Amino acid sequence: MMVSDRVVVTGLGPVTPIGVGAADFHAAQLSGVSGVRRISLFDASRLDVDIAGEVDLPPELAPTPRQLRAEDRCTHLALAAARLAVQDSGLDLTAEDPDRVGVALGTAIGGIDTWEENVRINVERGPGHIRARFIPMAMVNSAAARLSIEFGARGPSLAPVAACASGAEALVAGAQMIESGEADVVIAGGSEAPVVETIVGGFTQMRALSTRTEVPERASRPFAAGRDGFVIAEGAAVLILESAAHAAARQARVYAEFAGFGRASDAFHVTMPHKEGAGARRAVGAALRSAGLAPEDVAYVNAHGTGTPFNDLAETMALRAALGTAAERVAVSATKSMTGHGLGAAGAIEAVATVQAIVNGVVPPTVNLEEPDPELGLDLVPLKPRDMEVRAALSNSFAFGGHNVVLAFRAW
């Protein structure tokens, strides 16, 4: 691949339960803090599981009263993340050709709070009382459209939906826009605001959520022997992707190269991962080939690591099969142990963490991992961060429906 075709990351905008903005998010990872707490966004007293990862937006990024009336929280989080990422990149978008700026913003569910509110209104008061802005607020592509309008981005605008791999799919879509020549700059990432009664209740009924609710910050336990489910969370993250040539022309700071990606489907079950991680294994292998990496080149993997018994085992089997003997020497950690599982935002949030590991030479920990599952046999970086050189890293996103997306990043 020629330099002009290469894709680089020049801006980071995480909006997460453990920190908002690149600096705060990175510091929180290294401190091993948890963003999981008792749900405050609604009255969770009717639920068996009453914990989640929630975001505290600072005043300067909080929605205005008008935005609260006109947009869903999923869009508010996406807009906050995009503003942070654009600012972090140093881009002056008013000086860019707007036809060469694209948007790719993934979400699994979109404006679900708006859906829940208006279904309740319809049942209790009738259709004549449904909010006039219900449809545009609830549309899955609303956040992507809002970013396009906010930044005057007239290039392609996409809203990938692939359950918990949506944010990662959006980054792939952004990279492809640049590689195909459709755009010089893409505002790419994911957003999710699923902490509403219907969604938390639905996942509870599936027995997908951790029931360790006594101490909320201890509930998310990826790869632990006693893991019992994931902790749902809201959040967003946007990365600014640019062609290497465009970044060089404006003398931009480059965090890392978006070196490649791999995708594959399980074609197995709508909620269960393939029992041997077959689709995930193929996605890891495809990412290595796309990036021109050998297994021994990979220093770190930010795991999908949800904390469910089946997912963590399947992911482990996939890594061991795809990386071979190198799997035993690769540092693996699951930042969902701190942030909770942000569904469609997770892949983008974890891409930020992966890039930061490369830039700063330190791998974030998997907290709550006092007793790793002995069946897994990976180097899981428990409890504390690890200082180490990271020249190349993978970020895994695996989703309901059997969607598997693996992103490869490389030092620039």
TrEMBL record:
<keyword id="KW-0275">Fatty acid biosynthesis</keyword>
<dbReference type="InterPro" id="IPR020841">
    <property type="entry name" value="PKS_Beta-ketoAc_synthase_dom"/>
</dbReference>
<keyword id="KW-0443">Lipid metabolism</keyword>
<dbReference type="InterPro" id="IPR016039">
    <property type="entry name" value="Thiolase-like"/>
</dbReference>
<dbReference type="InterPro" id="IPR018201">
    <property type="entry name" value="Ketoacyl_synth_AS"/>
</dbReference>
<dbReference type="InterPro" id="IPR014031">
    <property type="entry name" value="Ketoacyl_synth_C"/>
</dbReference>
<feature type="domain" description="Ketosynthase family 3 (KS3)">
    <location>
        <begin position="4"/>
        <end position="411"/>
    </location>
</feature>
<keyword id="KW-0276">Fatty acid metabolism</keyword>
<keyword id="KW-0444">Lipid biosynthesis</keyword>
<comment type="function">
    <text>Involved in the type II fatty acid elongation cycle. Catalyzes the elongation of a wide range of acyl-ACP by the addition of two carbons from malonyl-ACP to an acyl acceptor. Can efficiently catalyze the conversion of palmitoleoyl-ACP (cis-hexadec-9-enoyl-ACP) to cis-vaccenoyl-ACP (cis-octadec-11-enoyl-ACP), an essential step in the thermal regulation of fatty acid composition.</text>
</comment>
<comment type="pathway">
    <text>Lipid metabolism; fatty acid biosynthesis.</text>
</comment>
<dbReference type="InterPro" id="IPR017568">
    <property type="entry name" value="3-oxoacyl-ACP_synth-2"/>
</dbReference>
<dbReference type="InterPro" id="IPR000794">
    <property type="entry name" value="Beta-ketoacyl_synthase"/>
</dbReference>
<dbReference type="InterPro" id="IPR014030">
    <property type="entry name" value="Ketoacyl_synth_N"/>
</dbReference>
<keyword id="KW-0808">Transferase</keyword>
<dbReference type="Pfam" id="PF00109">
    <property type="entry name" value="ketoacyl-synt"/>
</dbReference>
<keyword id="KW-0012">Acyltransferase</keyword>
<dbReference type="Pfam" id="PF02801">
    <property type="entry name" value="Ketoacyl-synt_C"/>
</dbReference>
<comment type="similarity">
    <text>Belongs to the thiolase-like superfamily. Beta-ketoacyl-ACP synthases family.</text>
</comment>
<protein>
    <recommendedName>
        <fullName>3-oxoacyl-[acyl-carrier-protein] synthase 2</fullName>
        <ecNumber>2.3.1.179</ecNumber>
    </recommendedName>
</protein>
